[in-house]
Specification:
By secondary structure, the protein is of the alpha+beta class. The chain contains 2 helices and 4 strands, in the order H-E-E-E-E-H. A 4-stranded antiparallel sheet has the order 1-2-3-4. Strand 3 and strand 4 form a beta hairpin.
């Protein structure tokens, strides 16, 4: 059968790579974009570098936000906010 369809293994490998690598990455990118768009003042967040704080301001002109921490207020790009860590921080505790 492979003699009749020499490109079949190559096509099957591409399909496997798409479903196990490309599709999940695209889904994750959409989730992160939605998370960043839904941020609002007062949300507790964690940046990708590990800074904990609360959103004090959101600026739509340069897509940044000001995060209030114990050390003061710091301006960050919204893409630097970690979706996973922020969701864990805001998740209700299980008893």
């Amino acid at each position: 059968m492979l003699e009749q369809y020499p490109y079949l293994p190559l096509i099957l490998m591409f399909v496997v790579v798409y479903f196990f690598m490309i599709a999940p990455q695209r889904k994750r990118q959409k989730q992160e974009k939605k998370f960043v768009e839904e941020l609002k003042r007062g949300d507790k967040v964690v940046t990708k570098s590990g800074m904990h704080g609360k959103i004090a301001e959101l600026n739509d002109n340069d897509f940044s936000c000001v995060i209030e921490t114990m050390a003061g207020k710091i301006k960050f790009d919204r893409s630097s906010i970690s979706m996973e860590m922020s969701k864990k921080l805001n998740a209700p505790e299980k008893k």
